[in-house]
Amino acid sequence: MCPWISLLLQGILERLSAGEVVIGDGGFVFALEKRGYVKAGPWTPEATVTHPEAVRQLHREFLRAGSNVMQAFTFYASDDKLENRGQTLRITGAQVNEAACDLAREVASEGDALVAGGVSQTPSYLSCKSETEVKAIFKKQLEVFMKKNVDFLIAEYFEHVEEAEWAVQVLKTSGKPVAASLCIGPEGDMHGISPGECAVRLVKAGAQIVGVNCHFDPMTCVKAVKMMKEGVEKAGLKAHYMVQPLAYHTPDCNCQGFIDLPEFPFGLEPRILTRWDMHKYAREAYKAGIRFIGGCCGFEPYHIRAVAEELASERGIIPPGSEKHGMWGSGLEMHTKPWVRARARRDYWEQLMPASGRPKCPSLSTPEGWGVTKGHADLLQHKEATSTQEMKHVLEMQKKVKTSA
């Protein structure tokens, strides 16, 4: 049977159970911010309502690059986030989520792709609202996903495993497959709970797919998922595994990842992984037993195309986007300059050490995390815009931290 037909007949769990590679998409929030459709700071996805054509086009580009999961652009689309710190959108979470599901389904139907609806961490949890209150937020989002009949659900971008457990428990009531990915590294969640223990707790909560997304570079994320896999197996449990990392190098990050880097979010470009780095990532993830492989912030369609090309023999599929991309630079054989034609080979790109072009740029940065997490007064959220007094406080704290560093 043609691989495309085979995949179309299967859901996410059937594909993973058969050992097939499922390729996710990339970082819609960062990609659309660069394109002028998302505002850095709130990072909310109202573009599904205000600029649906932009979201639709990005879905299509990832589909063409090889993605076979269209994750609805529902990141941070809970009402408490849409109303946080002075946001006055007059657009509800339900409106955003419904539009996101429609766009994802429209593009998914143009190829071989499943639609995933996702929930993420909430300001309410950081502000120490009760389990009942936080779960009510997830339930409200789930109602839309059920109405739109998404293929599976993802609880993603959680710094605290407890909140992720609550999300999984809510999503599990749908009867649909549930994936859970934490934005953690090998050090564990923000309370120091190890990746292995986090994974066990998520599986026990009802997640059938567990892993990590965002906050760290691909190799760091693969390492964290390996630790999750070890923990689940040691506990005698079973799960599938996923990884959707950053497209940035983060060797200098601490527990909280790239948001602590002084370059976040507007100076990260020098850290971007090349397409050849993505080949290495895809291979390492596959070797680790991870079969749901995608990307998060910084990932563009060409990064996903590199993942799809690296695993083309395992998948039996070449993405449509490869029509305009010679494997390992082979298209350069057509270049007019002979020294560029000489680069049309795999070993050249595998051995290349890219220069930054910035003579005074340090190779590493000093993270600026302040060591606060859920329950600390500095993380309490509110609907009102950030006040002058609050800004004065954070600037004083920043100065204090830098002085003591």
Automatic annotation (TrEMBL):
GO cellular component term, pick one: cytosol
Domain Hcy-binding per the UniProt entry, residue ranges: 10-311
Pathway given in the UniProt record: Amino-acid biosynthesis; L-methionine biosynthesis via de novo pathway; L-methionine from L-homocysteine (BhmT route): step 1/1
Keyword tRNA-binding: no
Cofactor remark from the record: Binds 1 zinc ion per subunit.
Keyword Metal-binding: yes
UniProt signal peptide: 1-19
Obligatory cofactor(s): Zn(2+)
GO biological process: L-methionine salvage; methylation
Binding positions (Zn(2+)): 214, 296-297
A Pfam family that the UniProt record links to this protein: S-methyl_trans
Keywords assigned: Metal-binding, Methyltransferase, Signal, Transferase, Zinc
Molecular function in Gene Ontology: betaine-homocysteine S-methyltransferase activity; zinc ion binding
Domain of life: Eukaryota
SUPFAM superfamilies: Homocysteine S-methyltransferase
InterPro entries tied to this protein: BHMT, BHMT-like, HCY_dom, HCY_dom_sf
Stored PANTHER family: BETAINE--HOMOCYSTEINE S-METHYLTRANSFERASE 1 (PTHR46120), HCY-BINDING DOMAIN-CONTAINING PROTEIN (PTHR46120:SF1)
Function, as annotated: Involved in the regulation of homocysteine metabolism.
Quaternary structure and interacting proteins, as annotated: Homotetramer.
Descriptive protein name: Betaine--homocysteine S-methyltransferase 1-like
